[in-house]
Design goal:
binds coenzyme A; 26% strand; Aminopeptidase
């Protein structure tokens, strides 16, 4: 993968092969490397995702998405510290249905950081890197379901005011439906989100 600076970050995020991502105020002196996952990384990723969520469902989701046509290899990134996997994030293909047609969009899920490395900048590094990669692919937007307190810091906003609706799980406030508008954003992209069947096959009963 080529180097990809993330323009809104003061230090300019870069994927592995360039400078080392750091979060100001966190992880002082700790190097977080971010790169696309490779087939050999799958068991370590499964272990990290399962540990992060404390259950198997999200790890199964990763495995099902990886094996599906929705998988985008360059948008499935892992974070390493001292060559050990400490985090993982995936953007895969979902769809938006406006009643007339269904078009593919980028869907971010899940994001996971190993418990012993949480709250030290790993999740932020993964979010900025995967957003930069989506921008480099000229994706118009990225959607997700999650806690707005966490994701708003990366530019995500409530999706309903821009015309994008999603079915949400019971735990979620309506603002959990979020969108990140990228450079190629087109306000004509409106409608209801349709997720890949992998999401139905996993019982995702925990707050994301
Ligand atoms: C949520 C998660 C991915 C965040 O990654 P992280 O590496 O711990 O987060 P970072 O260190 O980059 O950011 C830490 C900041 O996020 C906040 N934060 C962490 N988890 C949060 C959550 N679930 N909700 C809201 N804020 C959260 C922290 O308070 C901290 O805020 P501060 O910078 O103002 O002090 C990680 O905690 C995790 O894997 N949790 C379990 C799995 C999960 O819930 N995944 C969610 C998405 S599918």
């Amino acid at each position: 993968m080529k180097e990809q600076p993330f323009p809104s970050h003061p230090e300019g995020w870069r994927l592995k092969g360039g400078a080392v991502p750091r979060v100001p105020g966190h992880n002082a002196g700790v190097q977080i490397s971010i790169r696309p996952e490779q087939p050999r990384d799958a068991p370590a990723i499964t272990a990290v995702v399962e540990a992060a969520f404390g259950q198997r469902s999200e790890a199964l989701l990763v495995e099902l998405l990886r094996a599906s046509p929705c998988f985008i290899p360059e948008l499935s990134l892992m974070a390493e510290i001292d060559e050990r996997v400490v985090g993982h994030v995936m953007i895969t293909t979902a769809w938006i249905d406006d009643g007339d047609e269904r078009r593919p969009i980028a869907n971010l899920a899940p994001l996971a950081v190993a418990p012993e490395h949480q709250r030290s900048g790993v999740g932020s590094a993964l979010m900025r890197a995967v957003s930069a990669e989506a921008e480099a692919r000229r994706e118009p937007l990225v959607i997700l379901q999650g806690n707005p307190r966490y994701y708003s810091r990366f530019g995500f906003e409530w999706s309903v005011p821009v015309g994008i609706t999603m079915d949400l799980p019971d735990w979620a406030p309506r603002e959990a439906a979020q969108v990140l508008k990228l450079g190629a954003y087109d306000p004509a992209i409106r409608g209801h989100v349709v997720l890949p069947s992998a999401f139905e096959e996993c019982e995702l009963d925990q707050e994301q």
